[in-house]
Specification:
Elements lengths: L1 E2 L5 H11 L7 E2 L6 H9 L3 E4 L10 H7 L7 E3 L26 H12 L3 H15 L15
Parallel strand pairs: 1-2, 2-3, 3-4
Length: 148
């Protein structure tokens, strides 16, 4: 389940507290909250999605502290495209104010900087986390057999 909340963490946590045992898993998509909130989501065994918000020194300040608490095996890197363009992109690198997957390395760089992990480790481990969560490493089912 993908969960998106903005300025409603108390309500979301109350709902999840009641229903979490019946959910197979979940990702708090586009997390922009505080360290206290991320700890509560992690206690519910949820994954946390981080976007270009981490690259915004103005709006993302509380996210820096929160990101330090997220284990790499529970963290995912997201674009939230076309929104939340990383502010750390070089001036003139973007003609339109539109976020794209090609800017994900900026999120990885920011996470490496704030967590103390190196960029390759952040990229590798968060990719591994996403592949495991979405079960992308399992063999694909073969073609349907119709007996003929």
């Amino acid at each position: 389940m993908f969960l998106h909340e903005r300025d409603a963490s108390e309500r979301m946590l109350a709902i999840l507290g009641e229903h979490r045992p019946r959910l197979a898993g979940g990702v708090v998509h586009c997390f922009t909250g505080t360290a206290a909130t991320v700890e509560r989501y992690l206690a519910l065994d949820l994954h946390i999605g981080i976007t270009g918000w981490i690259c915004d020194e103005r709006r993302g300040a509380s996210l820096v502290e929160a990101a330090r608490l997220i284990p790499l095996d529970r963290m995912m890197i997201e674009t939230d495209a076309p929104f939340l363009l990383p502010r750390t992109l070089p001036h003139g690198a973007v003609k339109e104010r539109r976020n794209e997957p090609s800017f994900l390395p900026e999120v990885v760089k920011a996470l490496a900087r704030v967590t103390g992990h190196d960029e390759l480790e952040v990229a590798t481990e968060t990719t591994r986390t996403a592949r495991r969560f979405f079960r992308l490493d399992r063999p694909a089912a073969g073609p349907a057999r119709d007996g003929g």
